[in-house]
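Person: I have long wanted to understand how a fold can be written as tokens. Underneath my words sits a plain record pairing an amino acid chain with its backbone structure tokens. Those tokens are not coordinates but codes from a learned vocabulary of shapes. I should like you to check that the lines agree and flag anything odd. The protein I mean follows directly.
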Amino acid sequence: MRLLLVEDDISIQRFVERALVEAGYRVDSTADSRSAETLALEGNHDAFIIDLGLPDGDGLDLIARCRAQGNGAPVLILSARRSVRERVKGLEEGGDDYLTKPFAIAELLARVRNLLRRASPGQKEPSRLEVGDLQLDLIGREARRGGRVLQLTPQEFSLLEYLCRNPGRVVTRTMILDHVWHMRFDPATNVVDVHIYRLRAKVDRSDCRPLIHTMRGVGYVLKDA
């Protein structure tokens, strides 16, 4: 999936772009409406993320021009404009969703996924995840390894679900904190390491080959070696 990110605050732009790339998306980023319109005309994007307060115009005008040129890609509006009137205006003038600043990156990613699902109704969210002999029932919130039910706490299940959604991919502690605990990186916390330790004791029993692997100095990866 390829996204177009239009955000003039470079610190926010870089932060959001990094999170999107880490989530598996290809991202084109720009800080003004003129270059954004040029990129949008290529028609290669599955969704747009557009800030309204751009240096060379209003984001709503950019959306209107894209729509007038036949580009129907769904749009997630990012804006510090928080009033009900402004939010309604944004949705009525071409936005498909509206997220006010400041925002949690986990919520932004969830909204992007939802936009893409709505744009591709044939693609359904999986109800089960499998890695090797590990199975997760996302509806029943139950995990099994080799047919044996794992007794997990809700937080452990959420952590294992995140790892299973990224099989074979190294996820950093920062990514885990953001996606599972919805908090920014705190160098003083060891919450991720403690939960990984407890989760590994339940998933990687002595009679099973290990699935959870530590990438020293980077993070963790779930893979069936």
Notes: The two ends are 27 Å apart (CA to CA). The chain has a mean pLDDT of 88.
